[in-house]
Amino acid sequence: MLREISAGGVVVRRNDEVWWMAAIELPAAQEAAGKAAKAKPKAVLCLPKGLVDPGEKALDAALREVREETGITAVPITKLADIKYMYVRSWGDGERVFKIVSFYLLKYSSGQIDDISDDMRIEVACAKWIKLEEAPKLLAYRGEKQMATKALEYLATHSEV
Q1: What pLDDT, in 10s, does the model give residues 132-144?
Q2: In a domain, 36, yes or no
Q3: Is 107 among the domain residues?
Q4: Which CATH number does the domain housing residue 77 bear?
């Protein structure tokens, strides 16, 4: 079984007493092409994340992935947790993969959301700010919903952020 190590971030920004979080929307699935023309696939919202490069630290990978996938830069606040799961590749060899994703709570520093390269549009349809309190309902994946909840809990008990 293959192992993959990834890292990602819950990037937060406070505006008008409300915490906002950076999320990415994945490109629409190609399967939608075969459905009725009026059927619009549901947007898949998730956290920016990606593989840790050889020799790279997980935090550095999380900061890089956030920059590449959202167009913004952020500074670390704390590590939230690791998510562990298994999946079967739906491409190529169909191999089973054990994946660990380290997630960090990050605070927005600079940049314009969705200011990403054309090359990145293969992975990211758009990046946008969503209300952090709504993120657990809006994010597509269970582990990422948990990370948004952990971020909310952390910010509720750490007013200095």
Answers
A1: 999 999 999 999 9
A2: no
A3: yes
A4: 3.90.79.10
- pTM surpassing 0.70? yes
Domain with 120, as residue range(s), is 2-29+41-157
DSSP state of 44: -
**12-51 pLDDT, tens digit each:** 999 999 999 999 999 985 344 444 445 566 789 999 999 9
Strand partners, 84: 100
What is the total count of domains within the chain?
1
Which residues pair with residue 13 across a beta bridge? Answer: 20
Listing DSSP states for 90-148 in one string gives: SSTT--EEEEEEEEEEEEEEEE-TT---GGGGGT-SEEEEEEGGGHHHHBSSHHHHHHH
Residue 4's CB: how many other CB atoms inside 10 A? Answer: 12
- Domain assignment present for residue 35? The answer is no
For the chain, what's the residue count? 161
DSSP at 33: G
CA dihedral sign, ordered 152, 129, 48, 13:
negative
CA 17 – CA 40 distance, rounded (Å): 34
